[in-house]
Amino acid sequence: AVGLKLTRPVRIKAVSKHELQSLGGERLLGLYQDGVIYVNFELERREARGVIAHEFGHAWFFQHRRDVNSPGELVFEGFPEFVSFLALTRLGDKRAADRIAYEDQTVYGRGARRFIALYRKSGLPAVINQALYHDDV
């Protein structure tokens, strides 16, 4: 989407869940770190697309936001989950996009729903502004 371009390229690397654990210290499906999106190679293709899109959201966030340590979790995890929602919607995976928009009760889903509401009301520029300059959504 316009406005969600990376300033530097990132690589995508499929790794085992054990390697992800060693990188992130917890049970992860994916991780963005130092210009690389790591994704669990055991995921099904449709789940991997959502995880990669989420980690792309983190990559964009780290490349564009000046202070990545100040936002609350709803912004830090909600914005990448919103990016995943957008990607899944554009890929025609309505079921996975709806899961983010309606079913996920974690901080990921709650934050994403706030970004989705802002997107529907005011468009992508408002979402980008919120992600870049605000600590809550």
Strand and helix layout:
Blueprint: E1 11-15, H1 17-24, E2 30-33, E3 36-40, H2 45-64, H3 73-76, H4 78-90, H5 94-103, H6 107-122, H7 124-133
Parallel strand pairs: 1-3
Antiparallel strand pairs: 2-3
Helix pairs in contact: 2-4, 4-5, 4-6, 5-6, 6-7
Question: Summarize this, please?
Answer:
This protein has helices at residues 17-24, 45-64, 73-76, 78-90, 94-103, 107-122, 124-133; strands at residues 11-15, 30-33, 36-40. 36% of the residues are buried. The protein has seven helices and three strands.
What report would you give on this structure?
It is globular, with a radius of gyration of 14 Å. Strands 1-3-2 form a three-stranded mixed sheet. It is mainly alpha-helical. Helix content is 59%, strand content 10%. Strand 2 and strand 3 (36-40) form a beta hairpin. The protein has helices spanning 17-24, 45-64, 73-76, 78-90, 94-103, 107-122, 124-133, and strands at residues 11-15, 30-33, 36-40. The protein has seven helices and three strands.
Sequence of secondary-structure elements: EHEEHHHHHH
- What is the oligomer described by this structure? single chain
Which word captures the global form?
A: globular
Helix fraction, binned, reads: 55-70%
Major sheet: size, sense and barrel closure? 3 strands, mixed
> What does the average pLDDT come to?
92
